[in-house]
Amino acid sequence: MSGLFSLEGQRALVTGANTGIGQAIAVALAAQGARVTCAGRRSSSETIAAITDAGGQAEDLLIDFADPLAAKGVFADAGYTLLVNNAGIIRREDAVSHSEADWDAVIDTNLKAVFFTCQAFGKELIARGREGAIVNIASLLSFQGGIRVPGYTASKHGVAGITKLLANEWAPHGITVNAIAPGYIATNNTEALRDDPERSRQILERIPAGRWGNPEDIGGTAAFLCSPAARYITGAVLNVDGGWLAR
Ligand code: NDP
């Protein structure tokens, strides 16, 4: 394993690691040598089995990020150096009918919990003079408006904004803060779109690479952004979208 990409000796926390993109990120980090905590509201037993079967190290941590401050205290004295904020929800309603309850749920999980989890992690590293890396999972809707997802679009624009702010504030402490903006990735989240032949055809036609992304496409990017090879990258919101935004 090249040292440039090695995560040996690092301890990582990945949120929403029981399925989809978070699962692929946890597996990719562990494959590079990190010990991975899978943080979510349900057990990540399948992810942990995949990691340990391959000789890696992983454990579960039950946290519900519907409470944005839920991660407070998790990082104290625990030796974490890597954080990936992946957990997220979407509510599909047009702007005239989007309810306040759905707006609050999406903003709490996708934005407020991301900020306060970063805060808890950053505080610990800064207090100990330890370097580290944060990767936040943003979206194409960090750059574009989208349609029928008002709270989600607001939350993902917010994730891009706080990623840049934290990058500015914490670069002097050796903490990099970046975001990945996935394009259309085949997960449970997008199953309904893939099952709709007309919508699925429209999406595929618009992707220059001619295919949906796999969760592993995002896992590899997250492992890179956590690695020594990416130490001079901070404040980036990197689209991983098969060329969608280049169009
Ligand atoms: P999934 O719905 O498959 O996974 C979402 C993950 O977030 C699950 O592990 C889920 O846990 C977890 N989660 C949701 N709410 C909470 C909560 N309150 N507390 C703890 N964990 C929670 O979606 P994806 O894998 O597709 O999405 C992962 C991330 O990628 C999200 O932030 C999403 O917005 C983003 N994204 C996805 C794209 C795609 O095309 N798939 C495109 C752009 C961005 P549980 O199983 O318990 O619900």
Automatic annotation (TrEMBL):
Keywords: Oxidoreductase. InterPro entries: 2-deoxy-D-gluc_3_DH (IPR011286), NAD(P)-bd_dom_sf (IPR036291), Sc_DH/Rdtase_CS (IPR020904), SDR_fam (IPR002347). It is an enzyme of class 1 (oxidoreductase). It comes from the Bacteria. GO terms for molecular function: 2-dehydro-3-deoxy-D-gluconate 5-dehydrogenase activity; 2-deoxy-D-gluconate 3-dehydrogenase activity; NAD binding. Pfam families: adh_short_C2 (PF13561). Its EC number is 1.1.1.127. The keyword Oxidoreductase applies. Belongs to the short-chain dehydrogenases/reductases (SDR) family. NCBIfam families: kduD. PANTHER family: 2-DEHYDRO-3-DEOXY-D-GLUCONATE 5-DEHYDROGENASE, SHORT-CHAIN DEHYDROGENASES/REDUCTASES FAMILY MEMBER. This is 2-dehydro-3-deoxy-D-gluconate 5-dehydrogenase KduD. It comes from Paracoccus aurantiacus.
